[in-house]
TrEMBL record:
Residue span(s) of domain NmrA-like: 4-101
UniProt superkingdom: Bacteria
One Pfam family from the record: NmrA
The protein's name: NAD(P)H-binding protein
Length: 278
């Protein structure tokens, strides 16, 4: 058991951030969550809320007081734009005595991650998760309304990861030695097709779910009807139609770092089954 530490978590209410918070609390550490508006923050009991803004590093000093570890996201502000303030954030963190930083990779190069990787004064760990299991929540409406999942490229492979396992890896890297200057690709324990996921969900929900394969043209029409930007559509086409090897290869990182196996999609589906029921 590591000694009790205080960790500042940014993005604490997000898909991954809330699991970082939960894992740190479960391990007996103190958690402080950074928010631009403390009155609007909804966080678990025992979490200290601190106001500050990653786009204005001068506001961070009070939030970093007494903190040994810092979990960072790579975007900020109301528009969620890539942060250009990495060097000043790191300078403020070093001055406050922060020893370890984790950065949630944003899907590509970002100025903040680049600044962290270039820093030699703090132990940093870049967390690089593949597809989130939570992406399956995009199917809720179709399953509830008609018992269908409509997707293109249904044979694509994914080593999708449980968000709780990302949080667990972050919690270890933030509180234990030996993870500095490391890049961790974080995956689940198995490689699944879209059909595998649908079958697993159906078993968890206790309802038949039909998989309808869309053509690429039908998928494009749907995404454009949802007003997705063309760069996002291009990313989806590449990610789904030509999934890179890293996204479909089990890494083993969760077990190596945390000492326990990565959680399966069946576990995730059981935890979220009610969301898919009428």
């Amino acid at each position: 058991m590591t000694r009790k530490q205080k960790i500042l978590v940014t993005g604490a209410t997000g898909t991954v951030g809330r699991h970082v918070v939960a894992e740190l609390l479960a391990r007996g550490h103190e958690v402080r969550a950074l928010t631009r508006d403390a009155a609007k923050a909804v966080l678990p009991a025992g979490v200290e809320v601190a106001e500050g803004d990653l786009t204005a590093p001068g506001t961070l000093a009070p939030a970093l007081e007494g903190v040994t570890g810092l979990h960072l996201i790579t975007f900020g502000g109301a528009a969620y734009t890539p942060l250009e303030t990495g060097p000043r954030i790191l300078e403020t963190a070093r001055s406050a005595g922060v020893r370890r930083i984790t950065v949630l990779h944003g899907g590509g190069p970002t100025p903040l991650e680049d600044a962290v990787r270039a820093d030699g004064g703090i132990d940093w760990t870049v967390l690089m998760p593949v597809e989130f299991m939570a992406n399956a929540l995009e199917w809720v409406d179709g399953i509830v309304a008609s018992g269908e999942v409509r997707e293109p490229f249904v044979t694509r492979l994914s080593a999708m990861v449980h968000e709780g396992d990302i949080g667990a890896v972050a919690a270890v890297a933030l509180t234990e030695a030996g993870h500095g200057q490391q890049e961790y690709v974080i995956t689940g324990p198995e490689v699944l097709t879209v059909g595998d996921k649908v079958t697993t969900l159906a078993a968890a929900v206790g309802r038949e779910i039909t998989l309808v394969e869309l053509t690429e043209e039908q998928a494009l029409a749907r995404w454009r009807a949802a007003y997705l930007p063309e760069d996002v559509i291009g990313f989806l086409l590449e990610a789904y139609g030509n999934t890179p090897e890293v996204g479909r290869t089990v890494s083993g990182t969760v077990e190596k770092v945390t000492g326990r196996p990565a959680r399966t999609f069946a576990q995730w589906a059981a935890e979220h089954a009610d969301a898919f029921r009428p």
